[in-house]
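Because showing beats explaining, we let one protein speak, sequence and backbone structure tokens together, and leave readers to judge.
___
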Amino acid sequence: MLKILNASPGFGAPLSERDLKDFLTTKVMNLHLGTVDEKGHSNIHPVGYYYDHLENKFYILTAKESKKTHNLSRNETVYFCVDDPNPPYKGVRGKGTARILKEVNFNLGIWEKIMARYLGNSEDPMAIALKDELKKGDSIVLEISPKYFSTWDYSKQ
């Protein structure tokens, strides 16, 4: 069972587990990933993602040498937020831990799911370029394991 908190007590309602899974898998939005850099400063990274609702994990493609990858190699704790900017507002935020995944065959499977979600296919020039980066090992996948979700749904007032 997922740990779901009410992000706005007294205003709206938290998402149910089913609504949370639907929200994260059917809407195409960015996840805002919070990491901490070498100076202890917060960094926010808007990213595309794939959410595996069966495993309760987020997957993100990124460059092996990206700021977020460097930050996560030092501190695996992350915060995240996915929210719909259109009324009635709803969203999901939380805290989790990240792992850097370098296994090319696994990462290509994640690439395919993210490309289908954001681009509609894997033949787009951007998709092909990202696939080449994964095959060369210049890109990796981040796996985020949420510890909890804090959710809000203002349509339920």
Remarks:
- Helices lie at 17-26, 67-74, 104-118, 125-136.
- The domain at 4-153 is CATH 2.30.110.10 (Pnp Oxidase; Chain A).
- The chain has one domain: 4-153.
- The CA atoms of residues 32 and 128 lie 24 Å apart.
